[in-house]
Amino acid sequence: MEIEVKVPIKDRAAALDRINGLGAVLVNERDQEDLYFAHPVRDFGVTDEALRLRKDGHREVLTYKGPKLDGRSKTREEIEFSVPYSEMKTVLGKLGFRESFKVMKHRAEFVLEGVRVCLDDVDGLGSFVELEFEGQDIEVGLQKIESLKKRLGLEGNETRSYLELLYIKNKR
Amino acid sequence: MEIEVKVPIKDRAAALDRINGLGAVLVNERDQEDLYFAHPVRDFGVTDEALRLRKDGHREVLTYKGPKLDGRSKTREEIEFSVPYSEMKTVLGKLGFRESFKVMKHRAEFVLEGVRVCLDDVDGLGSFVELEFEGQDIEVGLQKIESLKKRLGLEGNETRSYLELLYIKNKR
Asked: Where does residue A75 rank: exposed (0-12), middle (13-18), buried (19+ CB within 10 A)?
């Protein structure tokens, strides 16, 4: 089971202070770049697919996401593997794929009481704190996350992805 | 400089005997699989491009070949990098690329007097010996190759690629 809660924050410095104040351990800090592509003739928005190149620190991966497999769950086919970012990007360009969206963020990743806490600074969107719990017991996870959320002074819940938020923002 | 000569052979066993008889050293032996793709909407034959997935023993690479850069030389842009064969093949299929041609061969690679000698068994085409010399002096290379060709009892010269030969054969 994986539980993930994302909260937009206004005061980044205050959030960082609270995270550190609770004794969180900084695991790593890196830039993440997600580059989404448009198919030469297919509208991925209509077919509900996505093609993404990700640079996550030194890790570079290509991800294909297929359409949702049923209406109720969010299950999708996902195929992901390592590629050299720059070369793959060039080849996709040569094959007629256009760069449609770029999500760039700086991520500081902490561990706090068994919860992964990410402080994300997303270009064009601002800062967010993401709390993620992985484990067998969903109730324990939810309680841990809610408790941490309170003690970190966080309010709200953003269920949309950064890509969706950027897309909406750029459409306006 | 790289000089490469390819000769079709009728009697594989005799060719192998001659190669071994001259004291060639077997460097390695493996199956090579070249899978060529057709673009969803572009005709690579017209645009003079190619997209190829290659499995060469344990090495798996994707290669994009751009159109010839000028009429006189055979210079092309070539972008090549490691990918996991099976996953990349699946993603290309999902994106609408169709498998257009498969060149499968068994290659036994020898070194003989500084020349790379490959005994290729190509599915659907038969057997070939390829002689390849890499070095500064093109005259020395040509002489070496011609001398070896004679001593190996090889006659003829096939300048077309296996892909071209298969394409012609299948068109008939």
From this structure: exposed
